[in-house]
Amino acid sequence: MKRLKINRDYLITYGIVIVFYVIMSILKGTNNLSSLFKGLLVPLCVYMIMAVSLNLTVGILGELSLGHAGFMCVGAFSSAFFSMIMKDSITNPIVRFIIAIIISAVVAAIFGILIGIPVLRLRGDYLAIVTLAFGEIIKNIINILYVGKDADGIHVSFKDAASLGMGEDGKIIINGAQGITGTPNDSTFTIGIILLIISLFIVLNFMSSRSGRAVMAIRDNRIAAESIGINISKYKLMAFAISASLAGMAGALYAHNLATLNALPKNFGYNMSIMILVYVVLGGIGNIRGSVIAAAILTVLPELLRGLSDYRMLIYSIVLIGMMLFNSSSKAEQWKAKFSPAKLIKKHKTVKEAE
Amino acid sequence: MSFLNYFINGLSLGSVYAIIALGYTMVYGIAKMLNFAHGDVIMIGGFAVYVCTSSLGMHPLIAVLISIVVCTVLGITIEKVAYKPLRKASPLAVLITAIGVSYFLQNLALIIFKSDTKLFTSVISIPLISLADGKLVITGETIVTIIACLIIMVILTLFIKKTKAGQAMLAVSEDKEAAELMGVNVNRTISLTFAIGSGLAAIAGVLLCSAYPTLNPYTGSMPGIKAFVAAVFGGIGSIPGALVGGLLLGIIENLSKAYISSQMADAIVFSVLIIVLLVKPTGLMGKKMSEKV
User: Fold this and answer.
1) A233 in any annotated domain
2) Do B232 and A325 touch (CB under 8 A)?
3) What percent of chain A is predicted at pLDDT more than 70?
4) Residues of A (281-300) whose Cβ lies below 8 Å from B
5) Is A125 touching B (CB cutoff 8 A)?
6) What are phi and psi of A89, to 5 degrees?
7) pLDDT over threshold 90, residue A191
8) Would you say residue A15 lies in a domain?
9) How far apart are CA B195 and CA A346, in angstroms?
10) What does the pLDDT look like over A221-245, one tens digit per residue?
């Protein structure tokens, strides 16, 4: 019976995403969507996938990561690099994009494992600061990475474009801080939604799998979990790598939506990681559906406030603080307990009984 | 000689980091929260001095004092409005609120002062010292920064060791409940910690803007993160740790800028942090914590 309920809960989540997709597609098809919103559809999918992915680390694994944008960065650059090389070899954009997404997920997962092995030994705030450090290092290295391609093959340099030493037919693919220019524009809203559903499917099924239960046991009580024979490092690493690979996928989607891809503090720095964390916390830690909804609302909110120009981010920050105070402060808890529907009904009943 | 030059400049930058890191470490030690808005208090401190000297034409010293007062009041207000109601909430909720406060301060500054970068006139009027036939040049800012950092460290250590309020801070950071039972006013102690941390942030802001004479609403965010790294590096919660962490970070950053690559400096700083934490998971001077089952 319990199992059935869980499945129904998951179906509601998928349902919300599909209904959202249908509504947006109809609005788009009938030209009722402003160009601003049309441009927002793919980033919206990117942020929703990122929020689902980070919720796996923060909510299910219970470790605070402040460097999630780093994995997105890895995914974005590896997939864009692949698309640039294969631009002429694979002409079918869908096939090329699918391979690019798989590559981004695999590369990000490898990074997740490499970073996870040392990082997951640490705890709490120390883990958070090290993930932040890794995110910044990834961004920094991409900014000095030069990769070019000519008849001899691929050249890599960490100094400048000139020291690549390419032949006459050479073409620079990753140009240091200028990044990758001319990535094919393969991302569409439909692919974004499909990726979101795949991410949801992976995370939700992981949660109800044996491994997922092991991960949650570690989160709730590490020592108890260890004492009943759960391999802590293995399951932590598994969850972290899955989370990283989903972030990589989001990165691929992000990269193929832009003409020029470069690693700025704005898109792949700690600010981005923190923004995604805000979605996760406001959506409810461990609540996957909440992450999706919070990401959607908080991405659209600043755009809706655009009319207020300079004041919009100020209002956004006030709303953010207000929401946190309302959600978590002890006074608000008391207030909510006083006026909660369940309590009111109970009160009503006791009054009746007394009569 | 050039090595010594880079080293001294690194020491100066490190002193600024150390002063900022003190604010992080004290707040963390007592309230067990990462105060992400700390970097933006630095920026507000810088702007307060900028307004006082450039627009109102005040004497730099008075401007610095006003800036300290502004930041102290700001720190206490932030604590009262945003953090105090969340005393019993999850650490993550407090973290997000701190991020919200950080956004708020940045965007408030953006509206008041606009996004263009202002040129900050140094408040320090000590001439630079030139040694060994001009090969070794030490600016007045460098000297003042290093001396200010040392004075602050000494005063702070004495304050915590010798005064009742300082002892109360130690007690609260050890065990909040027990301190409360012993008659320590926990709320007032936490407010005091925020006040001191924010006052120090104002000083750090002035020193930072004097050494690197630009100012915009995002000035505080990167030094803030670096100082946070410095605090973790030295062992978060430990005051001597903040000093050591800050100085080391400044020196490493400047030397790698000079000898390896200026673009890689940040990556090197963060790599050193990672290596230190992997070897010593609670930072250089952090307390070892044993776990109870």
Assistant:
1) yes
2) no
3) 93
4) 281-282, 285
5) yes
6) -75, -45
7) yes
8) yes
9) 46
10) 989 999 999 999 999 999 999 999 9
Measured between alpha carbons, how far is B92 from B100 in angstroms, rounded to an integer?
12
Cβ-Cβ contacts under 8 Å, B274 against chain A: 118, 130, 133-134
CA distances from A310 to A55, A70, A306, A337 (A): 31, 29, 8, 37
- Residue B214's DSSP bridge partners are B119
Give the CA radius of gyration of chain B: 19
User: Using a CB-CB distance cutoff of 8 angstroms, which residues of chain B are in contact with residue A309?
Assistant: none
Q: What does residue A145 show for φ and ψ, rounded to 5 degrees? A: -90, 125
Of the candidates A58, A140, A324, which has its C-beta nearest B264's C-beta?
A140
Q: What mean pLDDT do residues B95-106 have?
A: 90
Using alpha carbons, select from B224, B268, B220, B263 the residue that is nearest to residue B248: B268
Mean pLDDT of chain A: 86
* Predicted local confidence at residue B43, as pLDDT: 93
Q: Is residue A325 part of a domain?
A: no
Residues of A in contact with B90 (CB under 8 A): 285, 328
Size of interface A-B (CB pairs under 8 A): 124
Which domain range does residue A87 map to? Answer: 2-270
Contact A324 B100 (CB under 8 A): yes
The pLDDT tens digits of the residues spanning B159-170 come to 999 999 999 998
In whole angstroms, give the CA distance from residue A267 to residue B290.
39
Q: Write the pLDDT tens digit of every residue in B172-215.
A: 988 888 999 999 999 999 999 999 999 999 999 999 998 888 88
Strand ranges, E, within chain A: 146-150, 153-157, 171-175, 180-181, 260-261
- Number of separate domains in chain A: 1
